[in-house]
Amino acid sequence: MGLLEGKVALVTGAGQGVGRALAMGLAQAGAAVVVNDIGVSLTGAAENEGAAAAVVAEIEAAGGKALANSDSVAESEGAARLVAAARDTFGRLDLVVNNAGILRDRIFHKMTQEDWTSVIAVHLNGSFNVSSAAAPIFREQGSGSYVHMTSTSGLIGNFGQANYMAAKMGIVGLSRGIAMDMQRFGVRSNCIAPFAWSRMISSIPTETEADKVRVEKLKRMTPEKIAPLVVFLGSDAAKEVSGQIFAVRNNEIFLMSQPRPLRVIHRGEGWTPEGVAEMLPGAIGPSLVPLERSAEVFTWDPV
Fold first, then answer.
1. How many domains, the chain?
2. Under a CB-based contact definition with an 8 Å cutoff, are residues 192 and 145 in contact?
3. CB of 188 within 8 A of CB of 174?
4. Active site residue ranges
5. CB 66 within 8 A of CB 55
6. Nearest Cα to Cα of residue 8 among 94, 89, 77, 84
7. What pTM value is reported for the model?
8. Domain membership flag for residue 1
9. Cα end-to-end span (Å), the chain
10. Nearest-CA neighbor of 126 among 171, 188, 70?
11. Residue 176 to residues 86, 152, 183, 188, 190: CA-CA distances in angstroms?
12. How far apart are the C-alpha atoms of 227 and 14, rounded to whole Å?
């Protein structure tokens, strides 16, 4: 008996890469899985309309239960149809995994409105749309779990990804809000920042030797490494875990920090601009967060 025996899971963007690995892992853990994917390229162009059906075929060949769905999560109507299909087919819904996403990488001063809105629409709006559609079912059941895919590009930073970073940090806030608002109904919500070689990171520039080494290390981190944590978070074993941010890097699982006060300066008579300029750099300057990329924070090799 797997941890998810008898449960129903829904995974968006599950036609390939991380999403496919998650769908397969959830099925292996006993869940019936709704595999959602509209079959587009990394940038959102039509590419492989049969992606979801192919994953369903793999799950069924292994003895599992699955349903293919090609609704767009960027549209609230599509998300509603997706969630309805899960309940209509399998009778319930226990886990929503918001994984769908696209990239439109561009240095900020060259980023267009379309670059911005298209990424926000799939990542952030899509996560809201599916989560919102599932919320009444979870509330009625008195149980349910959300797992949202964030990224260290959002949590820490990366070049040319202001749209993606904003979306992924927005997902962190969305997850925390869901966790707080729906805890009274027995509903949990958590985030995972996955380190795994997939389309989402295959666009990393390799202009320097250091970047080439970094990419080669990432290629060794398979998306299947992410599935065990997702299975756990969707199971009853994680009933006390909500509102958290995790990262998975090969065989490592990290609990990531969340913003809390680090330092304080106080002046009883209040502040003037000159007073701030006099005191803040020396008192708080050493604690300012540097403009680092993910690779500059995770400096050791994954084990």
1. 1
2. no
3. no
4. 164
5. yes
6. 94
7. 0.92
8. no
9. 29
10. 171
11. 24, 17, 11, 9, 7
12. 12
Residues 193, 244: contact at Cβ < 8 Å? no
Q: Is residue 289 part of a domain?
A: no
CA dist 169 and 152 (Å) reads 9
CATH number, residue 236: 3.40.50.720
162-182 vs 126-141: helix crossing angle, rounded to 10: 10
Residue 98 covered by a domain:
yes
| Domain assignment of residue 96, given as a range | 8-258
**Side by side, which strands form the sheet with 95-98?**
66-69, 32-36, 8-11, 95-98, 144-149, 187-195, 245-249, 252-255
> Distance (Å, rounded) from C-alpha 55 to C-alpha 292?
37
- C-alpha angle 250/252/255, rounded to 5°? 130
Closest CA to 147 of 273, 14, 52: 14
Rounded CA separation 152/211 (Å): 16
Alpha helices in 99-202 (DSSP H): 113-120, 126-141, 152-155, 162-182
pLDDT by 10s per residue, the chain, length 303: 799 999 999 999 999 999 999 999 999 999 999 999 998 656 556 566 899 999 999 999 999 999 999 999 999 999 999 999 999 999 999 999 999 999 999 999 999 999 999 999 999 999 999 999 999 999 999 999 999 999 999 999 999 999 999 999 999 999 999 999 999 999 999 999 999 765 555 555 566 776 666 667 667 788 999 999 999 999 999 999 999 999 999 999 999 999 999 999 999 999 999 999 999 999 999 999 999 998 899 988 887
Burial bucket for residue 139 (CB in 10 Å: 0-12, 13-18, 19+):
middle
Whether residue 281 lies inside any domain: the answer is no
Tell me the two tokens of residue 199: 């389309």
Angle value at C-alpha 297, between 294 and 302, nearest 5 degrees: 85
Neighbours of 226 (CB within 10 A): 29
